[in-house]
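Chapter review: from sequence to fold.
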Amino acid sequence: MKTKMKKAKIIPTLVSLVVGGLFGFLIASAGVDAGKDLPVEVFVLWGIAFLPVIILVIAAHEAGHAVAGISQNFDFRMFVVGPFMWDREQDGWKFKWNKNVNVAGGMVICLPRGTENLKKRFMVYGAGGPLASLLLTVVGYLLHIALPSGSYIGYLFLLIALLSFLIFVVTIIPLHVGGFTTDGGRILNLLRGGERAQFETLMIKLITQSSAGVRPALLNWQDLVEADHLGRKLNSPFHIYIQSYFFQSAWDKGDLELAHQHLLAYVAGSESIPEGLRGMVWLDAALFFAVAKQDYAQARTYWQNFIPSAILPKAQIHAVEAALLLEENRQQAAEKIDAAVRELPNMLDRGAALALHDRLLVLKGIAA
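The token string follows.
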């Protein structure tokens, strides 16, 4: 079984590398032919400007997702490009440094308000990024040809057009790499209809309900069962997130044995979760063993795997720290509990925040 799972992960990665390598070769070949008549100074200029320009074109792509999301009544919550991150907290937008390499390529978090017509709305949201990249390509190229021949500013616009077109092509090709699916992959899954579209829609529905404030215990268990069945059947890399929903729902209902089973499945599949988000697995596991099982040794074992990330909820980080401090320093534990409570309104997942609030009350009672 493990061998088959490894092969299942290796094959898509190899396909992605081959497709990406082929595309890169074609672009490079075209660039060599087109660049034969360009002055050396232009290549020096491009080398100097490459980093700010690539950040610009990624920002434009992600802004396209944000604008499309807002147009579909999505709640715009986070914007990441390169090392820069803007996170909308309770008291407004906050700038943070992004230290997660696997989301440095850009990320926007927009959460749908309401569950009506999710398939169409999410397709518009997914298409917003590639369309913005294509628009920037056209604008950059038109400005390049409109400016006087040999203008350095004109060559800068040409570089913007080339890199923006590259982003457009890379994101529109349907691929799954490193725990993420390209925009084209998500749109294609929804367009195909059938079981893939059904699974995508169920996942979006669960995320929407939870982010809107439906606590884990009140999520539709049948939706989870159906998503679990489809995820396994389709061998979807996103199937692992269903185990998280099962775990949270069972714990919120007080069924610790069932929660434990799904937590172990969640931990076992953690390698398929992008590294920048994987810390959530260790936070969940550490908190469960400290609060529900009162097995502090096992909680600390999971905690040792945790790597801080600006994307992860501070409330849960403080909650785990509080739980692990209870044995040694109850005053410090109480301070961490208070810090966690203050951060609850900033959690993207409002349903999970309600469940975490109850667990913090339990910890507060122990610390008193």
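Two observations follow directly from the output. Confidence is low (pLDDT under 50) at residues 1-34. Strands lie at 74-81, 84-89, 92-97, 107-112, 176-177, 180-181.
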